[in-house]
Amino acid sequence: MSEIIIKNLVKEYGDGFLAVDDVSLDIGDGEFMILVGPSGCGKSTLLRMIVGLEDITSGDLMINGQRVNDKKPRDRNLAMVFQNYALYPHLTVFENIAFPLRLRGGMSQEEIRTKVEAAADTLELTEHLKRKPGHLSGGQRQRVAMGRAIVRDADAFLFDEPLSNLDAKLRGQMRTELLRMQRRMGTTTVYVTHDQTEAMTLGDRVAVLRRGILQQVATPRELYEQPVNMFVAGFIGSPPMNFIPGEVEGGAIKLPFVTFELPAEMREAVGSRRQVNVAIRPERFEDASIADESKRSRGVTFRATVDVIEWLGNEQFAYIPYEAAHELEATLHELERELDSERMRSQLVVALDPVSKITDGTEAELWFDPRNVHLFDPESGANLTLTPTPVPADATQ
Amino acid sequence: MGSRRSANWWTLWGVLILLWALFPLLWMVSLSFKDPATFRGSTPSFFPKEWTWKNYDTVFSDSLFTSALRNSAGIALIATGLSVIVAMFAAYAIARLDFPGKRLILTVALAIAMFPQAALVGPLFNMWRGLGIYDTWIGLIIPYLTFALPLSIWTMSAFFRQIPWEMEQAAQVDGATAWQAFRKVIVPLAAPGVFTTAILTFFFCWNEFLLAISLTSTDKARTVPAALSFFTGASQFESPITAIMAASVVVTIPIVILVLAFQRRIVAGLTTGAVKG
Asked: Sign (positive/negative) of CA torsion A211, A212, A213, A214?
């Protein structure tokens, strides 16, 4: 049980590269905190600074009110699960789990056995205790690594992409298992991942990092609905949010495929800007032909030619390419590259109800509600349409 | 059928190479069992006409050989032990730590390994006499260490580099000091490398001839390879060749045993399963 407070933490490497740049974060007792971001954003470095495997250049790291900057990893009483598990191949599963207990000393053989067996029981490893890690499957090795973490009463668990080496199905199962375990034990947990499904499903709160700078810390729901900038908006959500360059003309915004009137409060947010980036989540669109009449009147309908349809059973995605000879396109390309994806062409991704009968290559009538649109400043990338939503007090920064 | 035929060819090649490599050894063994008085008979044969242990009796009753065997074993074991311990720490530092002059140390080590020993023998002889360690165990152990260390450091640092960093970091997070992590995680994982290095070093010390013959003069420190060249057989009227061969067989046995005992350890990498493969 403990509280981890990170104050203005900086990691600067010898060559002047700032891996972690002035990050401040309060992780409450028993909280499940996710550090997420594309590769190279400094999330793993931050985790390794917390555990003590990476020196802190400046700033303060407090665990339970104590400054631990200069403490050795073994004096911080944290347990860590590594991406490649880092099991000791020359020891049996039992000895692997018992390893931290034996190092601490002062525990009888009997006590150690009881503790290891209890941990193995939780993780369903009892029948493998005598085996060596080399003979275990990926999922079993993963569980041994977790066993090594839970066997001692560590102040907090640190996970460094623990599921990324598992196949998709196992990953889903282990994710649920992990969440259940954390909820039951109520141990403070910091979890690094680049997988946004893990981030959204596991985290009480999620911290999004970009090039070592903390972008936003919020509940998964808040991140999704109120992203502070284009980076967060583009990173969270799958398929990703559509960013469309828009021209402001009076009270209306002109997009490549439709011009729509801005609601009054948004007009204010836009101010005197001539251009904005318009962002709409794919699922905010609907097939106008099957949308409620009452809804239709509140929103904007437009016609567009659907290039490709992907039908998945529970939903379907429509891809609508559009002409975008716009100066803002370049910055959008830049953003996509940073988000580890390749923007091949300017296209709109639309998630449709699976009953929709729109087919490939036809013109379809689509609908969206302008109030569900986010507007971003093209220069700073900041969200102009943030509305302060009532969130629980403990979830705000 | 094609694959079977090619497999047969491979077997044939294997047998040929094996014969080629084994022939001198077999010849040595065969000679060691021949009668020293008659082995140069008019009808030479590969195998002895009469098997005899006479040569072995000669060899073991000769104090020249028994003391040499003692010297060899002692000097080789001490030199190997020291070399492995020193090389283990040096290699660990080279593999894990970043310190100024790391490249220099590796380069100098390599240069020493390539230095012609013959060029050193003269100066060493004079120096050792001046220091009073000529014809002593320590007088041989020091140069053996010098020449064995570079190779040991290079091979062991390669082994240490293969051990994932995370092993050690995991140990540290689990509560180990740097020394505990080294002793409980790194050393067991590097054991195959340490064994390989130890065996190679032992072979080097055991077989070394040039320094052994130049820096010794009596039974006090003369090792087997050097002693063999002073062999005279049971009497001066007999050819010493069969006795020398018997002595050679005796000194080859430890090496054969070592290889047989540790080949599995050398070959099997202990690190399998450490990380997802």
From this structure: positive
